[in-house]
Amino acid sequence: MLMIKKAFAAAFPKTLPILAGFSFLGFSYGVYMNVSGFSFVYPMLMSLTIFGGSLEFVAAAMLLGSFAPLQTFLMALLIQARHLFYGIAMLDRYKGTGLKKLYLIFGMCDESFSINYTADIPADTDRGWFMFAVMLLNHFYWVAGATLGGIAGSLITFNTEGLEFVMTAMFTVIFLEQWLKEKKHYTALVGVLSSAACLLIFGSESFMIPTMVCILCFITLLRKPVERSVGRK
Amino acid sequence: MTLLQRVITIGLCAAATMLTRFLPFLVFSSKKPLPKYIGYLGQALPAAIFGMLVVYCLKDVDILGGSHGIPELIGIALTAVLHLWKRNMLISIAGGTVAYMLLVQFVF
């Protein structure tokens, strides 16, 4: 028990920046779901089970469209593909964490990964419980934010027209961050140009699957120059 | 969508997410490394995918009619400028969204 308490005490300060970010984004997500016509149960359960902000926003948009299971699954896979990398990075660090490992894998969102990957865990604190605490706290912030947003959405009295732009703004910021990180912008341009071209050709109802196929093809074809531009690790 | 279709849609999102999170632990170990191609995809995809998602958000914008996508353009430009200036995700998102709401409610 003392061990667990200690882990939470060590983890909590590290998660404070995430508390700020997740309350804001989670809350926005909940409000966005609510003004899109979903009860707070949706953002609550989706934030609990998916626990990945980008995909949850996209899932909301997909729930408003027509039923397209294949497109949904493929989009979800591509949006979340970066987690493959997190898992590989954590293979060794998760060793010996017992049953907690299941939750440590389940809850590996970007933010939990970056804390657990970089944090200096105090020597007297149990690694497994520390990482577990980071994840549980982050998960809690996100679900609480989304649920409260879902409830608050129905209490809002001002005109919410245009609030859905929060998703566009969020992806613009993430895209910009990716852009600034790269020296060459091959893959960023592949993403934007493939989707814009497919949107023009196939129309807004059915352009996503062709877009994803194009992106995978071009990224595969451009492998050499892309790897050269980032330098092999 | 019916309730069942909604449940399936959400379930597929959760399943795909879990696949990407659990796969490395099920298939690879430190002795048996990830195929280079999969590793490359994990590294190269994010920039492309977030570019795709920006376009996805704009898919229903009508450039030829309505407000011609001008509020969206201004909203995105403002979000980007705010972000380059302050480098604070919350300020950029909140600023861009509020500006867009004001534009579509009062200007266009």
Helix content bin of chain A: over 70%
Globally, the shape of chain A reads globular
What pattern of helices and strands is seen along the backbone of chain B?
A: HHHH
Total beta strand runs of chain B: 0
Largest sheet of chain B: none
Which parts of chain A are unreliable, with pLDDT below 50 for 5 consecutive residues or more?
A: none
Task: Report strand % of chain A.
Answer: under 5%
Oligomeric state as shown: heterodimer
**Proportion of β residues of chain B?**
under 5%
Q: State the largest interface.
A: A-B, 91 and 69 residues
Sheet with the most strands of chain A?
A: none
* Number of domains as seen in the coordinates of chain A: 2
Mean pLDDT score of chain B, rounded? 90
Helix content, binned percent of chain B: over 70%
Quote the distance from N terminus to C terminus of chain A: 41 Å
Structure description:
The complex is a heterodimer of chains A (233) and B (108). By secondary structure, chain A is mostly helical. Chain A has helices spanning 2-35, 41-49, 53-64, 69-80, 83-90, 100-106, 110-118, 127-153, 165-181, 186-202, 208-221, 223-230. Chain A has 2 domains: 2-153, no CATH class; 182-230, no CATH class. Chain A is 75% helix and 0% strand. In chain A, helix 1 (2-35) packs parallel to helix 3 (53-64), helix 1 (2-35) packs parallel to helix 8 (127-153) and helix 10 (186-202) runs antiparallel to helix 11. Chain A is globular, with a radius of gyration of 20 Å. Chain B is built from 4 helices and no strands. In chain B, helix 3 (70-86) runs antiparallel to helix 4 (89-107). The longest helix of chain B is centred in the N-terminal third of the chain and has 25 residues, at 3-27. Chain B is extended, with a radius of gyration of 20 Å. At the A-B interface, helix 1, helix 2, helix 3, helix 4 and helix 5 of A face helix 1, helix 2, helix 3 and helix 4 of B.
